[in-house]
Amino acid sequence: MNSEAAVCASHLCKTYRIYAGPGSWAKEFLLRRPSHDRIEALRDVSFDLPRGRSLGVIGDNGAGKTTLLKLLAGTTFPTSGDLHVSGRVSALLELGSGFHPEFTGRENVLFSGALAGYDRLEVDRRLDQILAFSELGDFVDRPVKTYSSGMFVRLGFSVATGFDPQVLIIDESLAVGDQTFQKKCTDRIVNFKRSGVTIVFCSHNLHQVKTLCDEAVWLKKGEIAASGPAIEVSELYQHYCRENAARPKQESQPSERALCWIEKTRLSPDTGGDGPVFSTGDAIQIDIQVGHSPEFESKPAVAVAIVRSDGEIVYVTATTYDGVPLQQVRQGLYRVRLLFPELPLLSGRYSLNVVASDENSLQAYDILEGVHPFRVKHYNLESGIVRLRHHWETSP
Q1: Bridge partner list, 129
Q2: On the chain, which terminus has fewer CB atoms closer than 10 Å, C or N?
Q3: What are phi and psi of 129, to 5 degrees?
Q4: What is the share, in percent, of the chain residues with pLDDT greater than 70?
Q5: Bridge partners of 307?
Q6: Phi, psi angle pair for 293, to nearest 5°
């Protein structure tokens, strides 16, 4: 193992055996013949993480991110390959993992400290600080089985970061907490990073990955698709997501479990080339078709966001905001057109996010991000994001 590395992973593989039921396992054990399916969650994953550096783990759902974090935390073991983690490890993985549901929050803190190898005096010394950070109030003396998901996150993060870890592993469960607590957690992670703690951070929030992490690993179907500086890898993954979102969907093959989906989108006029190029003040239109299954018990609605190339959301509107129902083309298929008669955007590169939701805009069923990239040219000396209608007056 590299003496400068806090984490050294070499050709890691993790395979799970999937049995149809207890009978299949017993049959395999008695007959000595395989009676299971195999799922390769990780294949040939190798990387080194130097001490004091932070690593972001990104990728689609099912790419193997959580499996990798479990290997690093020591809660599961690789099927093959070598893994060395140097230093005291603390991890916040699945929501509520490591907590006994019948114990109170206070008792779970004591229990977690004992499992981490701390004596009772050391745990008692840190107890008040951990509980204060969690902001659970009187709930610290109630069984954790009565906690909400947000309360689980508060307690879990407080425990994971309350015992001075040398290697801190954080899964994307932080997204469950409220915004105030998320900011509090982010500040603590930044302080850990500044103090030299090695951090492994898994998240779908690429802005956080770019901000908090030095390096990143992009996992794709259990393999490393890219690794390197966090900003570069995040941009590669973001480009991949945009390409997938822009790829036309096949009308006859929606997901079996989908209730409502975006069938087709189009931005016009199409100026050709590498993508549409508009001038400030041009008229543009966005045509959207939405399909839904017979089980869909609502009326579909659509939201559209204009997003600048750096991720800044410039404008969001929705059919529900303006009280506009979608037009039914046929059973299970609707359409709507969004018009901008005078595009107010100034020079820059932009794209669209399109969302299909229920009639109250409360449940999003399908989301396309970064579709229809386009460019805006503006030849005036004005600067900013948008051109606002205005006039000057000199008379009193």
Answers
A1: none
A2: C
A3: -65, -40
A4: 87
A5: 313, 351
A6: -85, 165
Q: In terms of Cα–Cα distance, which of 276, 242, 262, 349 is closest to 306?
A: 349
* Whole-angstrom distance, CA of residue 247 vs CA of residue 131: 48
Which residue in this structure is represented by tokens 């974090």? Answer: 69
pLDDT of residue 267: 94
Region of poorest pLDDT, from 14-18, 27-31, 335-339, 375-379: 27-31
How far apart are alpha carbons 208 and 85 in whole angstroms?
24
Closest CA to 94 of 176, 171, 175, 205: 171
Q: For the segment 337-390, what is each residue's pLDDT rounded down to a tens digit?
A: 999 999 999 998 999 999 998 887 767 888 898 899 999 998 777 888 888 888
**Residue range 68-123, pLDDT digits in tens:** 999 998 888 999 999 999 988 888 886 666 788 899 999 999 988 888 778 888 88
Note whether 322 and 276 are within 8 A (CB). no
Locus of tokens 């009326």: 299
What whole-number distance in Å separates Cα of residue 122 and Cα of residue 228? 39
Query: Residue 192 is encoded by which pair of tokens?
Result: 């850990």
| Of 131, 129, 156, residue with least CA distance to 141 | 131
- Confidence (pTM): 0.61
Cβ–Cβ < 8 Å for 332, 324: no
